[in-house]
Amino acid sequence: MRRARCAFRSPGWIRLRRRLRRSTSWSTSHPAARLTRSTARALPPARRPGTRRPQRQAAAEAAQDGVPMQDRDPIAPSTHATPRERPARAAERALWLLDRVAPERAASNIALAVRSAAPLDVAHVRRALGTIIRRHPALRSRFVLVDDVLTRRVDAVGDDPSIEVLTVAQEDADETLRRFAERPFASSPDQPAAGKLRETDGEPLIRAVLVVTPAADTFCVVCHHTIFDGTSALLLTGELVRAYAALSTDGQVPPDLLAEAADFTPPPPGPDSLAYWHEQLAGVNIRSMDLRCDRTRPAQPTFRGEQHIHPLSQGAHDLLGNSEAALQATRNIIFLAAYLLVLARHGAGPDVTVGVPVDVRGGRGRGAIGYHTHTVVLRVDMERPGTFRELVTLTRDTFLAALGHADASIDDVIDRYGTCGGSAENRHFHHMFNYFDFHTSVQKASWTPGGADVDIVEVAPRHSVADLEIVVRTRHDRTELVVHHGTDVLDRTDARALAGRYDALLHSALRAPDTPLPDLTWHTDLDRRALTPSPVRATPWRGGVVAAIAAHARGKPDAIAVVDADTGRTTSYAALVDRAARIRDDLGDAGIGPGKIVALDSARTAATLAGALAVWSLGAAYLPVDHAHPAPLTARRLAGARIAAVLGRPLDPATLPDVPTIPLPVPRATGPWRDLPDTGTLTAGTLAFVIHTSGSTGSPKGVRLTQGNVHHAVTTLAAGLGLDAGASALWLTTFTFEPSSLEVFTPLVLGGRVVAAPDAVRHDPARLTALLARHPVDLVQATPTVWSVLAPALEGRCEGVHLVTGGELLSAATARALLSTGGRVLNAYGCTETAGWPVMGEISPACVANQPPRIGRPTGGHRVDIVDDTGRPLPPGLRGNIRITGPAVADGYLNAPLRHPTDDTGHRTHSTGDIGRLCADGTLEVVGRADRQIKLLGLRVEPAEVEGVLEDHPSVSRCGVITARDAESPSLVAFVETTATVHPATLRAHAARHLPAPAVPSRIVAVSALPRTDTGKVAHTALHGLLDTLPPDTAPADPHRPQLLDGHVTGEALTERLTSAWRAVLADDTADSSTDFFAAGGNSLLAVLLSERVEDLTGHRVSLGTLLIRVTPAALAAHLAEAPSPATPPSTTKPGAS
């Protein structure tokens, strides 16, 4: 594949519906702009005496005056003396459409620039460029709508083009070039010159600038991709340099540059090739190409992008020489195979598609400037090859088959068949690959030897339609990977890391091509450092929690241990231990001893804590029981635990097994207190309690937590927060929820006090505020659901307090509310199977500026791994299953034959069932539950992310999202907790601005309070039952508002006017407010006409990108209802009038 650098085709994100007949796949590569700097002796210096600056200015002024046609070099008679037209090809229409979707991004602009240390003669540059434009019809092309058909028009020969001359400081030169390259051509609809697209011819699609600095002159030409590609960049550069050199030498243009080049147009695609591609791409699921490091795609992409260059390691470069013969493939195929593999390692596939450009000029078009590349889509099943050698062979064969049908580009295939395989979306690949043999291609550019040094200047684009594009540029002595990525989906860190892994994987594969693919090394040095296991260590065992509390009772017996916040009654350490000793006697008399499990009343009282200490002192364990739970649930838990006694209030007889009930004694008023006997028989492995998972996403399971788990959790929290001896904590969490052990045992181990709050405080901000005023504490923790209710009322009232939140994903809105309290906010992560919080991090205002906060880093000697489905660790930035190893991991599940496995160091490991990733700074980001992930229209949807977006609306305090059951097609239903009057359409419009269309809930239900588990989490399983009780959704598509607001149409009148626009453009009087524009026969060109009619009727300027997402009048009306008032008044024409 010894071809010049060609332009890529993007995957085409646009949602075009069935019967779409126009192309929507876009090409965005800017090849010449991406050439590395290369020095050649090419341009003679301008021959003008005297000082530089005044003559430079004079030359610029003379250049702008123009040169009469009769004084130019004679040009051969040609057929291009008059304009000529033809309908635009599919690929050209695709690029034209891109400019309408994102006019401000100028994503189809291609820039090439050369820099000379010697001054350039502006008049010669202008004349040289004019010669090349007159020679090549493509450079005189523009695109216009003729009778609503996009048409390519070639202008007649004209004067030399104008050239902007900009004098800037040396340090500003590159930024000036970038801004010039990024300026949209005037045919873009956001330019005032464009006016109505139906009434204005397109503008010229080439422009130039001379950037002058004290050290060098840089000449830059920018062309639109519809008239230009990578080969064109090399041809134009070569001819331009030749023309300038000749003009500078003898004032004459070389005769061969005066002859008109052929106006080449690739032949139409053959039917066999169209059929081949239609079959080849049938059933492509573009969503399977999402990478583990991708962010959620926005509802409307911005097309912002970045570029960076990764020098290929010398080791990998050196291995390439012998690999071509060994693998029986050229270098481009080897690099392409490695690209497929690195995409698969990052989560794509196994059905992987990649777009690759092919130059289709052939013999007839050789030397023709224009847009003459076709993109072929390579589809490779990554489960077929077992080794890299086999993958290279498969890639080679697939590519050769594609070349045999390259007369049909992906644009032609879509233009012929609509969407391949019946897909509702015209998207076939997210990632692109290109290969550029720099040495060979630059030789082909016909550089003129001699003269001044000239550098090719790289004008790196700041846009990208593709998620990821890698261009391999090779020389004899080195190779570079040019990485372009869209910042909507990939951030800079992840893109650079992927390039490094590409390098490492290629090196590994070339060294051992017969190694099984899963065993090839792909980690970079940074990855290896991040994946190096941190030492896992447990807190030294010194008798655990019981021993520490008993020691405090002996050392300071009168110190307050527990405060009843409701009554103000206090319990000293001596009284607490004395009560525990008496309960221990009663339990011993009932036969309770090591290995037994006791049902313990979970009321927030000192008696409950004394009961826990008594149980532990006997070597037994407790199961907390909430009397508010349904009797059948309690009965199942007691039976499963095989309890030996009930400690506390009597239970329902129907619930109670045949075991004794032991009441909790009242405190003694007088007499000496009793100490607990020596607890030296307790070990870190002794079972401490059985706690059930919350059941927020499924059936609760009993988890076995040990004395070592509890002791490590509380000591780790105390150390992590920097709590001093005597610290206090609010007992706010129910005792049946494992984090409550942190609230009670952390302060008791430190010799501090526990402030027991009444249950009502969790839902009553006023009572909590009053409680904290009476009983200041150092630590308060709650789930995000509880904090969403409490935090807004605590603004400025928690200075110096540690506010811990965990158990659920924390939304940005709740995090901001917590920060407003003035407290130190900590985001914690753990699960019932891991006592306490193995991961924790402090939240700052910067953490929640635009997104939910990350969790933090492992604490207390724990290790967090992100693993793939096979259990292999993933490098930072990639999403996978969260696995925790360390001393907080529980022994296992109640009555389960298998315990949690151990690693090589003997520490237990737990796969949490959560999806997350480790960030480059070592912090953990949790995405959601694996068992809550759903797919809608092929899109992987995280309900937790949808919840976070809705919770960021000021009217929503908490949200729960579920999938509607028993529906003809799956859909999302969101329940929002709100006290404000907010219409569902308003919330849907808010969601649509931040989420892809399939992730926007189809129904939003406002409730005064969401159902919660006893642990304070949103009970998602209960939401299904709530949905079943609701009547069918009959809410209007948009709020009933006045028909005129500030002189602009809104509400039902707006929907009516939009419907009339649908009917007029579609020529369909049956269209109504729910008619899908594209399903009803609309296409990209008609959508442009629709946008103009919408502006006429409503005053709102609507981009094509908006129409491609809001495809019905009702959906667009809801969007416009939330938009700012339009700058232009609507037409007074009545709806339906033409």
Automatic annotation (TrEMBL):
| Alphabetic keyword roster | Phosphopantetheine, Phosphoprotein
Gene Ontology cellular component annotations, sorted alphabetically? cytoplasm
Q: Does the keyword Phosphoprotein apply?
A: yes
**Per its record, how is this protein called by name?**
NRPS(C/A)
Region Disordered, annotated ranges: 24-88
InterPro entries named in the record: ACP-like_sf (IPR036736), AMP-bd_C (IPR025110), AMP-bd_C_sf (IPR045851), AMP-binding_CS (IPR020845), AMP-dep_synth/lig_dom (IPR000873), ANL_N_sf (IPR042099), CAT-like_dom_sf (IPR023213), Condensation_dom (IPR001242)
Q: Which GO terms describe its molecular function?
A: catalytic activity; phosphopantetheine binding
Question: Could you tell me which residue ranges the Carrier domain spans?
Answer: 1049-1124
Q: Which cofactor does it need?
A: pantetheine 4'-phosphate
A Gene Ontology annotation in the biological process aspect, one of them, is: lipid biosynthetic process
PANTHER family found in the cross-reference section = FATTY ACID SYNTHASE (PTHR45527:SF1), NONRIBOSOMAL PEPTIDE SYNTHETASE (PTHR45527)
Compositional bias annotation for Low complexity: 32-43
